Amino acid sequence: MSTVDLTGRVALVTGGAGGIGAAVARRLAKLGAKVAVLDLDAAGAHRVASAVGGIAIAGDVSDPATMPAAVAQAEEELGRLDVVQLNAGIGGGQTGVDALDVARYRKLVGVNVDHVVYGLCAAVPALRRQGGGKVVITASLAGIAAMPSDPLYTLTKHAVVGYARAAGKALAGDNITVSALCPGFVDTLLLGAAKEEFAAVSFPLLTPSDVAEAVQSVLAGGGPGEAWIIQPGGTATAYDFRGVPGVGGGQLPPDVVLGRV
């Protein structure tokens, strides 16, 4: 695990009231950052913020107004913004391959995808004011591999990884590093009843602290547009995407600006 000093820096963590978000908030505070903890669960956000000496922000990240307001509050109360952990996420709860609950689907996309776009767009001007910064998006292994048990969740996490890869390259010139973190299965409430199934076969799970440690590694060494993987018993590493076939049988590099020479 690489070290990083966040003394004097300010971080914003979404979904920070519990699970991965709370662990990340604690880790960033330990590294010296003042942390703004954003969550729909206002009481939980206050509890974590009080524990780390930060501030709590209550809000629904799928609402387009929430992320700009959160960034503004973090800047106003803590003085700046340097690190953003776009962590809030929910499970699909339906396959979406032969029937669809549209309301639940829209909520899934709102939290898992829209919030990431809203969050990055809100954060970039604040990060530019500091001469750059770091954005880490919590994705999933379902963002680089199919998860047949939850195709809709897979859809959202693939979208997040693709967005991080492209946005990271687009913002590299601003000294803003955007990376995705793709954990394996983590022991959080998101697992639901599946946790018992994993336990029955002694399937190893990551802890939220494992993921927070991986976030630290990404902050210390992550490159623009990288997607990092963390699995139980392993260390966080950047995933090596293959190139794609090009015109005439050649191979395009993994990151391509289509239509430009």
Describe this structure in words.
- With about 260 residues, this protein is an alpha/beta fold.
- The chain has seven helices and ten strands.
- It has helices at about 20-30, 40-50, 65-80, 100-130, 150-170, 195-200, 210-220; strands spanning about 10-15, 35-40, 55-60, 85, 135-140, 175-185, 225-230, 235-240, 245, 250.
- An eight-stranded mixed beta sheet has the order 3-2-1-4-5-6-7-8, sandwiched between helices.
- The longest helix is centred in the middle third of the chain and has 28 residues, at about 100-130.
**Unreliable residue stretches:** none
Strand order of the largest sheet: 3-2-1-4-5-6-7-8
Rg for CA atoms: 18 Å
What's the total helix number? 7
Overall, the morphology is globular
Helix residue percentage: 40-55%
Strand content: 15-25%
Total beta strand runs: 10
Which sequence of SSEs, written as H and E, runs from N to C?
A: EHEHEHEHEHEHHEEEE
Oligomer: single chain
Task: Summarize the structure in short.
With 261 residues, the chain is an alpha/beta fold. Helices cover 41% and strands 16% of the residues.
List the topology elements.
Blueprint lengths: L9 E5 L4 H12 L3 E6 L2 H11 L2 E4 L7 H13 L4 E4 L15 H28 L3 E6 L12 H21 L4 E8 L10 H7 L7 H14 L5 E4 L6 E2 L5 E2 L5 E2 L9
Parallel strand pairs: 1-2, 1-4, 2-3, 4-5, 5-6, 6-7
Antiparallel strand pairs: 7-8, 9-10
